[in-house]
Amino acid sequence: MKRYVLMLALLGGVLASCSKNEEETKKPLTPEVPQAPQGGLVEAGKAYIVLPEVGGANQPNQVYVDLSSGKMTKIKRDTWDLAFYCGEDFRVLLNASLAMSVKPTEYTDITKFVVPDRSILFEDDPRFPAQKLISKHLIDDPRGILQEQTGLEGTGTAIAQVSSTEEANKVYLLNMGSEISTTTPEVGGVNLQGAHRGFMKIRITRSGNDYKIAYAKNDELEKINTLTITKNPEYNFIFLNLSSGKTVQVQPKKKDWDLCFTPSTSWFSTQKEKIASPSNSVTYFPDMIISNLHGGTKATIFQSSDKSEEKRNQEYSAYNKEKALRIDFSQEKYNNQMIIGRNWRDNQLGNLVRNELYYLIKDGDGNHFKLKILSMKNDKGERGYPAFEYELLK
């Protein structure tokens, strides 16, 4: 119990504003290192800097970065609600960047009233982030693994696999999450969640190789909207905006991005051996870096031998492709889109870059990139302005 209380205290620091003596001093970007090009191909052996436009302390944007070209794709994170998997399986994801969650019902008739349940919401006070039990399976597996794993609660998608048996597909109560906050926090803090976006009810079935979704406000008994979603193998997912009833372009094609900067719901730990721990739980985090697992991107983390930034820079400079090729990314431990996740920043203070770390990224085409994160703030000390340096290894 003491350990759990300690983790609650530590989590409070993740999203809280810090005191001035804790604030990260933003380091000037190295002038001789150019910003990555927005298109074309990066040159192997040459260092580049990338400044993802997350949008400041409210972090309104999701930013997708393609390391091969340096191209960034920015999208406002409330543009979409559900993502429909384009692979062989039939899986649907929630928009984790809005702190969405679901709860299954026991029936298949979507015309029935679904009682709202505020217990599945994530709190909107950034100083006191809510924690939820993994066993309730309110969110998708943050590791990006779509299938449930035997004996591990909360794994797989929160909406069950869409079955070819019509009657097996239940109605779900859908928590639409929170609007993007426009409240400016104290310097060095974040404020992600605005007003609650309400509840809806949804039911997803299959029609051949397509998805069929029926959806409505949770108290609507007659006006039920329906839509067919067709898979596109060039993409990982097709994204749907429930307000407009239209699909929207969110992610680039599956091989055209590697990292996404975004807030997201997640677990305290995404390591397999810690998933079943009673101290593990679900909450909503800022400053996440998610790798394109479904497009074949894998990542790993290195820590400098004496845990210092100076030593990190020395080891980073010496890191080469020969060393990179020794990493066997086929191992199960790398089957995780949250390898970087929130691990790149200090999880106790929440707003300091861990400058002793550097990273190796292998994309879906087999290219290897080394990467180090330079900062997470602008010159005013405002959070939500990340910068990183990377290099294609030759």
Query: Strand order, biggest sheet?
Result: 1-20-19-18-17
Q: Give the overall shape.
A: globular
Please report the number of helical segments: 4
Domain count: the total is: 2
Poorly predicted ranges (pLDDT <50, ≥5 residues)? 1-25
What average pLDDT do the residues reach? Answer: 91
For the largest beta-sheet, the strand count, sense and barrel status come to:
5 strands, antiparallel
Gyration radius over CA: 21 Å
Number of beta-strand segments: 20
Helix content: under 10%
Estimated share of beta-strand residues: 25-35%
Helix-and-strand structural type? mainly beta
- Report the order of strands and helices: HEEEEEEEEEEEEEEEHEEHHEEE
Q: How many angstroms does the end-to-end distance come to?
A: 50 Å
Could you characterize what this model shows?
The chain is mostly beta strands and 394 residues long. The protein has two domains: 2-76 and 255-392, no CATH class; 82-248, no CATH class. Helix content is 8%, strand content 30%. The strands form five sheets. A five-stranded antiparallel β-sheet has the order 1-20-19-18-17, covered by helices on one side. The model is unreliable at 1-25 (pLDDT under 50).
Summarize this structure briefly.
With 394 residues, this protein is mainly β. The protein has helices spanning 2-15, 272-275, 309-318, 321-324; strands at 47-50, 61-65, 72-76, 82-85, 92-94, 101-104, 171-175, 178-180, 193-196, 199-207, 210-217, 225-229, 237-241, 246-248, 259-267, 282-291, 298-303, 357-362, 368-377, 383-392.
